[in-house]
Amino acid sequence: MFSGSIVALITPFTQDNEVDYVSLKQLVDYHVAAGTDGIVAVGTTGESATLTPEEHVKVVLKTIEFADGRLPVIAGTGANATHECVTFSRLLNNSGIAGCLSVTPYYNKPTQEGLFQHYKAIAQESDVPQILYNVPGRTAVDLLPETVARLAEIENIVALKDATGDLSRIAVHRELCGENFILLSGDDATGLDFIRQGGKGVISVTNNIAAEDMATMMRLALQGRFDEAEIIHQRLMPLHKNLFVESSPIPVKWAAHKMGLIANGDIRLPLTELSEAARPIVAQAMTEACIY
């Protein structure tokens, strides 16, 4: 259902800090042409925390419109208030999305029981497949494998995006959740090894600016052609690392603008545009990866 190279899509803004729908269409067309397997619209890389609810829903709907059935669109529906996630799920139920991706609630630091009840409430209000998203480095809460296993018993919770970078969890998740539960990497630097150990794909930041390479690498990996996939992976490693030289998505938006994929690299406060000191680092990574 969900596999391969899935982009954690950036949300472009105009210089007036409004959503830039012209650039958004350009991004979607870029990913269709590159062979990207799916789009996450308004996930955390899409600056979901700083979009208004109205903007959030509209960006998802416009992404679906621009994709026009050419590739699946997964809606980011995460927030740190359960009722807000439920509202997004209800609003997008009949929109044509392929699924929802919900990050663990940030700042609140819920218990494991709180996380279970949070995701259970979201799943009960949605008709589409649900993807859990664990990124403790950004949220300060860790969705533990035992809780994932409990949630995997809920019919429409079908996958986990794991951005811990802890490859030892793959076998644990597989044992606890069964073979049919989909495991997706959320960490580009370890993404290929994640597939090697049984994962089904990567929801990727790097994909925003190296879409064709990421699609090819994932296709090779899922065919078991890891030696060929490794060559691409190593070439992209400077991006995997240095697109996080400052808080994501600051570097990747700067890089996307530099490549002409979006009209400008504007980002919403409290994030600010890439610093002068970091720009040569990202530019060098792009050169080493042979994408610019």
UniProtKB/TrEMBL annotation:
GO annotation, biological process: diaminopimelate biosynthetic process; lysine biosynthetic process via diaminopimelate
EC number assigned by the record: 4.3.3.7
Site feature: Part of a proton relay during catalysis: T44, Y107
Reactions listed under catalytic activity: L-aspartate 4-semialdehyde + pyruvate = (2S,4S)-4-hydroxy-2,3,4,5-tetrahydrodipicolinate + H2O + H(+)
Superkingdom to which the source organism belongs: Bacteria
One GO cellular component, as annotated: cytosol
Entry's family note: Belongs to the DapA family.
Functional note: Catalyzes the condensation of (S)-aspartate-beta-semialdehyde [(S)-ASA] and pyruvate to 4-hydroxy-tetrahydrodipicolinate (HTPA).
Subunit structure: Homotetramer; dimer of dimers.
Protein name: 4-hydroxy-tetrahydrodipicolinate synthase
Organism: Vibrio sinensis
